[in-house]
Amino acid sequence: MVKKNILFTLSLCLFFGGLYGQTDTIPKVRKSDLKKLTEKYDTLSSEFNKLKNTLQQKEKDEELQKLLNDADRLSQKEKTKELDVSKKFHSGVRSQQGLNPNITVEGDFFAGISSSNNDFITEPGNLSYGNNGFYLREATVSMVAPLDPFTRGKTFFSYGADGAAVEEAYIEWLNLPLNINLKTGYFFPEFGPFNRYHDHALPQFDRPTALTNLFGNANLNGFGAASSILLPNILFADATNLDISVFNGGNDCSFASGWKSGLVYIGHFKNYYDLNKNSYIEFRVSGAAGKNDPVIEYNSYIGSLGIIYKWVPVGRTKYRTFDWKTEFLYSSREVVGGTVHSKGFYSSVQNKLNARFWLSGRVGYSELPYNADEYVWDFTINLDFWQSDFVFTRFQYQYNSRDFMVAGNWGIPEQAPSDHSFLIQVVWAMGPHKHEAY
Question: Is residue 279 within 8 Å of residue 312, measured between CB atoms?
Answer without folding.
Answer: yes
